[in-house]
């Protein structure tokens, strides 16, 4: 069993062969990563090199070198330089001046200069002398003479005849054509008989050119193989300009620039049509109206201001707000802020069951945020409330939520999905909110807390039994929404508790998705 550096069949034509022995530990230096080094050795010497996979009892492996006497000597010299750590590429005969895509073998004169030149773009097939060996084409422009000596002609990028066609593919798909270590492009060339050159540099449209050279049948077969690899061939005319390497615009041919441009390849630049944002907003509004049409109307205002609160003077309002930890209010230009309440009765005198639940918890007086938030929320207005932790924010939005749920025109037993949704950034906070809800027994309103890490099956079963309040973290809520377990289209009271923290934790996209499924005329509360 042997390793072939050329990945192809045997060379045709005459010649002799010789065998040299190397230590097994040094074989890797000759083969190189993925066979790259042995291919370079073959290219530089023009000899055929085969390494046995079996070692003898002395730990040596045989290296068979085939070719002319001169080629064999060059190969032996390069292998010895490789094993000794030298950089092969200096002056022996048979080295071609520059690597092109040429078919067949050129003259044998002209030793190459040492070292490597600049790397050319693309991968492709390099036909060996009279055989079908394969290697990287134009992988390096070696530092030899550009003159007539060497294989494949001395010209940079020279062609060996045949037709040429340039196609275009998405730059992201180039890897599917090349394959790992260039294996797929070599197989395509072998199967089609067509030379394939892929540009590694994409244009501004994100497309790369693929140059196919060969007979018509070979080019057609190569295109089929490229498409079979899952690569879509795109229309080059969509680029709007000639790309580097195209036949008709700026192509390098025999080392010279062809500046001729056909008229049909020149397209007039058209400025983009400006976006009509006003029309887009109107279309979005119309879409929302169609999506949520047929839903029952929302009743939001349940507040009846007692005379003692309504008749407060401006100075008295300022004094109460200052006494209540210096409450600061900011209303929109076209709105007003109701006066703060002083007692629980001021806010809920019309709701004795709520007052009874409040008394059970032995609260003495409303907290500062409750004094101002309850009148606002009971009027059905949106609210952004900012207060320290432990100041009663949960009850500030929870008690108005209970009244809102109970006062909607559709009976609770006939509703689809929850009426109130409370979003929380963490599982711990969601569980705390659920505990506060469970302390209040009002009109048989049911709630559930859904969060990641909890028993999903148990949460699912409770949702199916029917609930009016959902306390949820954004991730688990989106999971239930995506699986049609929770429908939030009928939510009319939305709370985002500690909204700033949810954004800090990266829940922006989940929150936006939830907002898209909730009717836009809802009542919204945000706290931080």
TrEMBL record:
Task: Locate the compositionally biased regions of type Basic and acidic residues.
Answer: 37-53, 117-144, 191-204
In the UniProt record, does the keyword ATP-binding occur?
yes
Q: What is the superkingdom listed in this entry's lineage?
A: Eukaryota
Question: What is the protein's species of origin?
Answer: Lymnaea stagnalis
The record's section on InterPro entries has: DEAD/DEAH_box_helicase_dom, Helicase_ATP-bd, KH_dom, KH_dom_type_1, KH_dom_type_1_sf, P-loop_NTPase, RNA-helicase_DEAD-box_CS
- Could you list this entry's UniProt keywords, alphabetically sorted: ATP-binding, Helicase, Hydrolase, Nucleotide-binding, RNA-binding
Outline the extent of the Helicase ATP-binding domain. 374-528
Query: Where does the record place Gly residues bias?
Result: 1-16, 86-116, 145-163
Q: Does the keyword Cell cycle apply?
A: no
Ranges annotated as biased composition (Polar residues):
18-27, 246-256
Protein name, per record: Helicase ATP-binding domain-containing protein
Q: Which family does it belong to?
A: Belongs to the DEAD box helicase family.
Q: Can you name one GO molecular function term for this protein?
A: RNA binding
Q: Name one Pfam family in it.
A: DEAD
**Residue span of region Disordered:** 1-165, 191-212, 237-256
CDD domains in UniProt? KH-I (cd00105)
């Amino acid at each position: 069993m042997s390793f072939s550096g050329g990945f192809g069949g045997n060379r045709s034509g005459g010649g002799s062969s010789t065998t040299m022995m190397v230590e097994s530990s040094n074989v890797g230096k000759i083969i190189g990563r993925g066979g790259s080094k042995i291919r370079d050795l073959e290219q530089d010497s023009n000899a055929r090199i085969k390494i046995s996979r079996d070692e003898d009892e002395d730990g040596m492996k045989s290296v068979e070198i085939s070719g002319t006497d001169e080629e064999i000597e060059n190969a032996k010299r390069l292998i010895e330089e490789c094993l000794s750590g030298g950089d092969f590429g200096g002056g022996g005969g048979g080295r071609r001046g520059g690597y092109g895509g040429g078919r067949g073998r050129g003259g044998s004169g002209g030793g190459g200069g040492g070292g490597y030149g600049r790397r050319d773009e693309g991968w492709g097939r390099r036909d060996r002398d009279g055989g079908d060996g394969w290697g990287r084409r134009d992988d390096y422009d070696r530092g030899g003479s550009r003159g007539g000596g060497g294989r494949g002609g001395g010209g940079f990028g020279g062609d060996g005849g045949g037709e040429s066609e340039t196609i275009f593919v998405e730059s992201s798909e180039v890897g599917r054509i090349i394959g790992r270590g260039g294996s797929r492009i070599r197989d395509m060339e072998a199967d089609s008989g067509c030379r394939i050159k892929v540009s590694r540099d994409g244009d501004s449209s994100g497309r790369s050119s693929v140059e196919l050279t060969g007979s018509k049948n070979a080019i057609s077969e190569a295109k089929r193989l490229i498409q079979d690899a899952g690569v879509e061939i795109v229309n080059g005319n969509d680029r709007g300009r000639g790309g580097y390497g195209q036949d008709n615009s700026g192509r390098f041919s025999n080392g010279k620039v062809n500046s001729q441009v056909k008229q049909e390849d020149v397209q007039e630049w058209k400025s983009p049509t400006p976006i009509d944002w006003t029309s887009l907003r109107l279309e979005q509004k119309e879409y929302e109206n169609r999506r949520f049409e047929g839903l029952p109307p929302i009743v939001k205002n349940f507040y009846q201001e007692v005379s003692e609160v309504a008749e407060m003077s401006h100075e008295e309002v300022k004094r109460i707000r200052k006494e209540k930890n210096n409450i600061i209010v900011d209303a929109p230009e076209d709105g007003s802020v109701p006066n703060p309440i002083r007692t629980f009765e001021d806010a809920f005198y019309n709701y004795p069951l709520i007052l009874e639940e409040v008394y059970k918890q032995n609260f003495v007086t409303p907290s500062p945020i409750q004094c101002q938030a309850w009148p606002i929320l009971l009027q059905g207005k949106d609210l952004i409330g900012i207060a320290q932790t432990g100041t009663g924010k949960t009850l500030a939005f929870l008690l108005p939520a209970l009244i809102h749920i109970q006062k909607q025109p559709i009976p609770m037993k006939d509703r689809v999905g929850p009426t109130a949704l409370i979003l929380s950034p963490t599982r711990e906070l969601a569980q705390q909110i659920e505990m506060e809800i469970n302390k209040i027994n009002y009109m048989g309103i049911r709630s559930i807390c859904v969060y990641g890490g909890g028993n999903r099956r148990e949460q699912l079963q409770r949702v199916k039994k029917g609930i009016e309040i959902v306390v949820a973290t954004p991730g688990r809520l989106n999971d239930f929404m995506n699986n049609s377990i929770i429908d939030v289209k009928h939510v009319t009271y939305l709370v985002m508790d500690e909204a700033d923290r949810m954004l800090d934790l990266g829940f922006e996209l989940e929150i936006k998705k939830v907002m898209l499924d909730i009717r836009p005329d809802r009542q919204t509360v945000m706290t931080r």
